[in-house]
């Protein structure tokens, strides 16, 4: 297994644009009350940088490793979702929800179905069901079933990410752990959105949502490069 130090030295420089773009978003902190294409660009810029991060590993790598290409596709739909949510007050919230639902399907496919780990699946099922049970009384109209479907999809994605870690069997890798933590942060971000949108105002909600979201996307993008890092490590050895 490639050591984390080796990975940081290899991948860290490629992530510098992402960190800079994230800083730009938080420094500018454009008001959500006046959506514009500029604010959409600033919000999506860190995700664009993660596109570049994956593309920097080479088109051949993405073509030959389906999990990496699916994560890239997920990042593309995430950017579309981010753009739609800029105009959520103008009626585009459901459009953003759909884009992120597709993202979770792509991420789940990238993480794969092996190992199955039914215990992790049961745990994520309980967590997801509990979240929906809490939100249910606040939902109305199409959101009653749309949120249910969305929670099921992100819960499934979380299950596949957690199942891949296998800490007890000592079969984990740093990238699988990265995917797991990223999926959990994504769930925290989306739960905060749901609470703030449907239930009650969450203090510092926008900061919590975006900080956990950007961290989640970065960690999930990192999980795509495991095979390339192992190949490079063998070549240098």
UniProtKB/TrEMBL annotation:
Single GO term (MF): alkenylglycerophosphocholine hydrolase activity
Membrane-spanning ranges: 37-56, 68-87, 93-113, 120-139, 145-162, 174-195, 207-225
Membrane topology: Multi-pass membrane protein
InterPro entries (UniProt xref): TMEM86B-like
Keyword vocabulary terms for this entry: Membrane, Transmembrane, Transmembrane helix
Entry's localization field: Membrane
GO CC annotation, single: membrane
First-tier enzyme category under EC: hydrolase
Family per similarity comment: Belongs to the TMEM86 family.
Protein name stated in the entry: lysoplasmalogenase
Organism: Zosterops borbonicus
């Amino acid at each position: 297994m490639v050591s984390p130090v080796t990975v940081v030295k290899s991948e860290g420089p490629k992530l510098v644009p992402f960190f800079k773009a994230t800083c730009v978003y938080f420094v500018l902190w454009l008001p959500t009350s006046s959506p514009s294409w500029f604010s959409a660009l600033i919000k999506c810029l860190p995700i664009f940088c993660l596109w570049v991060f994956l593309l920097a590993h080479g088109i051949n790598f993405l073509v030959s490793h389906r999990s990496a290409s699916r994560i890239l596709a997920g990042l593309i739909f995430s950017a579309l979702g981010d753009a739609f949510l800029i105009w959520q007050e103008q009626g585009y919230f459901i459009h953003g929800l759909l884009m992120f639902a597709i993202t979770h399907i792509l991420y789940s496919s990238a993480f794969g179905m092996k190992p199955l780990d039914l215990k992790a699946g049961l745990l994520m099922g309980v967590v997801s069901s509990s979240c929906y049970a809490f939100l249910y009384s606040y939902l109305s109209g199409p959101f009653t079933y749309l949120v249910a479907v969305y929670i099921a999809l992100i819960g499934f994605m979380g299950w596949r990410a957690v199942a891949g870690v296998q800490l007890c069997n000592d079969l984990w890798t740093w990238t699988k752990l990265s995917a797991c933590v990223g999926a959990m942060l994504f769930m925290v971000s989306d739960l905060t959105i749901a609470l703030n949108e449907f239930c009650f105002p969450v203090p510092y909600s926008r900061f919590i949502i975006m900080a956990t979201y950007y961290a989640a996307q970065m960690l999930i993008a990192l999980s795509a490069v495991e095979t390339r890092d192992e190949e490079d490590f063998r070549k240098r050895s």
